[in-house]
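Q: Structure tokens for this one, please.
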Amino acid sequence: MDLENAKAQMRKGVLEMCVLAVISEGETYPPEIMKKLEWTNLIVKEGTLYPLLIRLKNDGLVDYIWREGEKGPPRKYFTVSDQGRQFLAELTESWDQLVHSVNQTLKGEAAPTEDAGKRKRKTETPPKPLNIEPLPPEA
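A: Here is the predicted structure, written as tokens:
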């Protein structure tokens, strides 16, 4: 298996959520989005970001407004729509569940013994089941 390809696929899977999170911090334009993501070691190229922003706009998750640039031409500044905020909240909840489940698996906590499971259930609510199967394409 190609490790670099596996890493790239994981990053692509969370890119939409990360871009929405950056935009949700306040009105921003694409180079700022790329800089903020780069600061967190998520390197995104223009050829990846712009199509994603168009898709988010077409899905009603972000809006944009043209603003005059301090130096140069006007720029598109993006904001998250109300629908986008709700979508981001749901993605974040799902992400938290996924991270919890993966961490349990990596730490060998995926299949506790019968006794340990009984003790744990009394003190801790188990996380919701997480379906990681891809959804069928929409017809």
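A few notes: The chain has five helices and two strands. The chain has a mean pLDDT of 84.
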